[in-house]
Amino acid sequence: MLNLQHSARAGPACRSRATTRKLCVSVSAAGSTYGNNFRVTTFGESHGKGVGCVIDGVPPRLAITEDEIQLELDRRKPGQSIITTPRKEDDIAEILSGVVDGVTLGTPIAIVVRNKDQKSQDYSEMSVAYRPSHADATYDFKYGIRAVAGGGRSSARETIGRVAAGAVAKKLLKVIGDTEILTFSLCSLTQILAYVSKVRDIGCSVDNGAFTMADVESNIVRCPDQAAAHKMIDAINEVRTRGESCGGEVTCVVRRCPKGLGSPVFDKLEAELGKAMMSLPATKGFEIGSGFAGAAMLGSEHNDEFYIDEQGRVRTRTNRSGGVQGGLSNGEDIVIRVAFKPTSTIGIKQNTVTRDGQETELRARGRHDPCVVPRAVPMVESMVALVLADQLLQHFAQCELLPRDGAVGADPTVTRQFAHQA
Questions:
Q1: 10-residue block means of pLDDT along the chain (422 residues)?
Q2: Is the overall model pTM greater than 0.85, yes or no?
Q3: Given this model, what pLDDT does residue 48 score?
Q4: Taking a C-beta distance cutoff of 8 angstroms, is the pair 321, 334 a contact?
Q5: Is 213 exposed, middle or buried (CB count within 10 Å of its CB: 0-12, 13-18, 19+)?
Q6: Residue 418 confidence (pLDDT)
Q7: Which among 319, 399, 390, 9 has a CA at the least distance from the CA of 169?
Q8: Which pLDDT value is given to residue 405?
Q9: 186 near 251, Cβ under 8 Å?
């Protein structure tokens, strides 16, 4: 808290009275916390002693174990295959607080992962010269100091805390809303399931309503389309052997999302998802539903017509809205796509400048993914889970405290959509 005291005379008529005004400016450390109700703060640098998260707002009596968290961390850890960074880390999760005998207490949950395979000497050149398109320069611009080794907080290693917290959020969504989050890469198309849907210009053909986690994990690039996956792997290997990098896309699908999550105007569900996705390292684009392609369509082509299904639920015959209308989930699959740029750190000589303002050349060292999307799949899933968990708690607080008897709406199943109310 910064207090500024200002004294001023009230004017000629009141010269005997002096007024004192206190201006209080609250300055908080910004940028490392997400969420309002399900609140996650990540901590740690890439080459520090460890990384992790603190999760506040988790309901008590939720069953969660280190093994469940570890399952997600193993999907994002480095050294998985020839197309990922060769850095070797076990990334073992330790729950420090908030859980006793595998059950949450309702108090803050702290999770830490110790760093073990740092090679800080590989970053000696980066202490002098900025890597093009990396955060080196902008961190200096803002803070006047930075953690050079491994990129500090700008490293994708920061996402360990997100993935650990995402495992807890996924468990909550499964217990309360029977929500399945799956991801695929369009190098990388994504779900809670997510998958890689594209690498460079190589796309794929995937049925978003039918693919499974087993399909995603059936190959090292995490694309359910096996023929496309082979081409993607070849493309990544080709740039890797040249010291280059490439980008791709991840598609994420949320199945059976409860209806009504999100809030009007500034806190629309797609706005929260967009912010969450664009907070991930290397992201450059976000789409939901028809995305930019919808701009070329007519209203009659784009509108999702309603109907009543066999269970009496209000459904849409198409899903160009991507599961969100008016900023609120409508119960259809939420489908988003996230674009990831090529990895900034490459083994090719590039022009840059030094920290003292001299032009120079730099050939970066270090261990980096030639394409980030295969490991981005669990990161995307986790951020989607964090958004939905936060929105779920907010929805309960506002809309589920009072009985829904007599509530207006064409879909009677809305009153029974949460597991504990069934």
A1: 43 48 59 96 90 97 96 88 79 96 98 77 67 90 82 86 96 77 44 91 96 96 98 96 95 93 95 98 97 97 96 94 97 96 92 93 82 96 97 91 75 68 42
A2: yes
A3: 85
A4: no
A5: middle
A6: 67
A7: 390
A8: 73
A9: yes
Q: What is the pLDDT of residue 413?
A: 74
The CA distance from 282 to 280, in Å, is 7
> Could you count the other beta carbons within 10 Å of the beta carbon of residue 227?
10
Which residues, other chains included, contact 20 with Cβ-Cβ below 8 Å and sequence gap of 6+? Answer: 5, 6, 7
| Distance in angstroms (rounded) separating the CA atoms of residues 137 and 131 | 8
What pLDDT, on a 0 to 100 scale, did the predictor assign at position 117? 60
How much is the pLDDT for 154? Answer: 84
Residue 272 burial by Cβ neighbours in a 10 Å radius (0-12, 13-18, 19+):
buried
The b/e string for 334-372 (b: 16+ C-beta within 10 A; e otherwise) is: bbbbbbbbbbbbbeeeeebeeeeeeeeebebebbbbbbb
Which tokens is 342 given?
């090529």
Gap between the terminal Cα atoms of the chain = 47
d(CA 200, CA 184): 15
